[in-house]
C-alpha cells in the first residue's frame, strides 16, 4: 500500500480515502505487465452502481478510482494514442494494433531497445559467440566477403601506393570472416605523432596508437586525407568493389529480417570504416577482462541474428511492409511494360499482383488509423466508411468491368465467391484462429458479450438482407435444367437432370425486372441505413456498452507529448497513393486471372473463397492475432465481425449501385452453396459467443468448420458461365 497522506480538508476519512485511491490506481497501473503496449484492457468485477460516478480519474478519490475499476481501462502515452485506442473499440472503425505515435524510449522493453541500438556498444560479457545465427552468417556471407577483402588487399599491395589500404583490407578480411566479439575503433592519434612532418616525432607502442598492429607511415596523419595519392587509388580500385559487396550483403540480410544486424554491420562498414584513413582504424578482439582503448567505437557486434526483429519498424512502418513495398513497384513495372508476357506468364503476374495487395492494405490501414487518431469523431467515421473497404472494392469493380467487356459471366461468379469467402472467413477463420493462438497463452479468454451482440445482430440482419433476393428467386423462379434422363424408362417415372438453375428471365425477364430487381434495390438502400443506425447506436446513444475509459491516473513514463509517425496530410497522401496503386494491382490481377480460371482444374468457387477473399485481409488477421496474444479477444472478434458487416452492408450495396451506372453481369442472386455456408457460419458464430468467454477448443471448432467448408468448395463443380 502507498503511504497514507492526510487530507488537507481536515476530513476524518481523508487518510482512508487517499490510501484506497492509490491502491486502485496502482492496481490499474500494474495489471498484466506493460499496459502501454496494447493500451491495456481490464475486465473488473462490477461494483454496485451507487458507488460509481460518471467521471473517472480526474482527481484521486475513492469514487473516481472505483469507477476506473468498473470500466475497461485504457492507458496511453499521449492523447493521440489514447484516441487511437478508443477508436479500436468503436463500431465501424478499423482496429489497429501498431502505434501511430513514437513510443517514449524509457517505456520500451530491453528486447526492443536492443533492436534499435547501433552496433557500437561494448558489453562487459557478451557470452559465447558460437551461435546458430553466427554460423549462418559465416556460411552465407563471411567466407566470400573475407576472400574478397584478401583479393582487394593483394591489388592494393601491387599498386604499392595503396599498401596502407592493403594492410587495412587484410585485417578487415579476418574481421568480416567472424566479426563477433571484435571491435573496430576510430583511433585519435596523439599530438606527438603529428609532429612527424617536422621530423621531431616518432611512433612507438609506448606513445600510444596501434603501431604494433600493422606498419603505416605516421607522417601521413597530418596531411589531407582526400588529397593523398593512395586515397585516389583506393577510391578507384578498392572501395567500389567492397561497397558493392557490402550493399549486396545489406540488402540480402535486410530482406531476411532476422539478419538485420548483419545489414547494419555492412552498411556502417561501407559508409564509415572504408572511408576512414587506414591509420585511424583499429581492430581488436575483445576479452572479458580487457578494457577497450580510448576512442570512438564504430562497430561491435555479438550476434548476427535476432528473432525479435519482426517487431522492428521504420518510421512507424513494420519491417515486413517495408520489405514488400519494392514488390509493388516490380509488379507495376512488369505488368504494364511486359504486356505481351515475353518475360513472365500470366500466373506469375497474377501472383505478384495479389501479393502486392498485402503491403498496400497495411499502408491503407495505417493511414486510416493515423487520420482517425488525429481527427474528431466525424472525420474518423467518414474516412473509415469511405476507405475501410477500398481494398476489396477495387478488385471487385475491376473484375466486373473486365467481365462486362468480355461478356464473361465467370467474373461475376468469382466476385460472389470472394464476397462469400470474406464473409465466411471473417466469421469463422479470423476469430477461430485468434482463439486458438490466444488460448495457447491464456487458458480462458473473456470478451464483452454485449458489444459482440450488437455486431452479431447487425450480421444477422445483413445476411438476411443480402440473401433475401436469392430466397425470393428460389420461391418464384422457374427451374430450368440443361439435360434430363428418364431413369425408369417410364414417361411418368423419375428423371435425372443436370445443370439445373432457377431462370429469372422467363417471359422476357418479367420476374426479374418487375420483382427481383426492385427487391435488390430496396435491400441495397435498407442495409446502409441499418449500418448508419448501428453507428449512431454504438457511438452516440449507447456508448456505455463498450465500457471504455481512458485512464488519467498519473503513471510513470506516460503523458508524453505526441510525436506522430505520419501527420494528417502525410497520411492522406499515402492513403491516396496506396489506393491508386491498389487499383493498378487489382487491374493487373483481373487482367491475368482469366487463364487461371479457364485452365485450372480447381473449382472457381475455391479460388474465390480462399485466395481472392483472404489475401487482402492478412493485415487484419495479424492485428487480430496480436490482440488475442495480449488477452484482448474483444478486438479480435470485432475485427472479423466488422469486416463481415461491411461486406454485407457497404460493399454489396456499392456494387449494386455501380451496376446501375455501369451495367455488368452482377446480380444479387447467389448459389445455394453460398447461402447455406454463410447462414450456417453466422449461426455457429453466435452460438459460440453467447457466454462471453472462450478457449482454444472453441476456436479449433470454428477453424475446423471453416476448413470443412473449404473442402466443400474445393470439390464443388465450377459455377455456370465458367
Automatic annotation (TrEMBL):
One term under GO cellular component: vacuolar membrane
Membrane topology: Multi-pass membrane protein
Single GO molecular function: calcium:proton antiporter activity
Region (Disordered): 1-22
InterPro entries associated with the record: CaH_exchang, NaCa_Exmemb, NCX_ion-bd_dom_sf, YccF
Domain Inner membrane component: 132-182
Membrane-traversing stretches: 135-160, 232-262, 317-337, 343-365, 377-398, 418-440, 452-472, 519-539, 571-590, 602-622, 643-662, 668-689, 696-716
A single GO BP: intracellular calcium ion homeostasis
Subcellular location: Endomembrane system
Keywords noted in UniProt: Antiport, Calcium, Calcium transport, Ion transport, Membrane, Phosphoprotein, Transmembrane, Transmembrane helix, Transport
Superkingdom classification of source: Eukaryota
Keyword Ion transport belongs to the record: yes
A Pfam family hit: Na_Ca_ex
Main location, first listed in the record: membrane
Domain Sodium/calcium exchanger membrane region, first and last residues per copy: 348-468, 571-713
Protein name listed in UniProt: VNX1 protein
Organism, as annotated: Molothrus ater (Brown-headed cowbird)
Gene name per UniProt: Vnx1
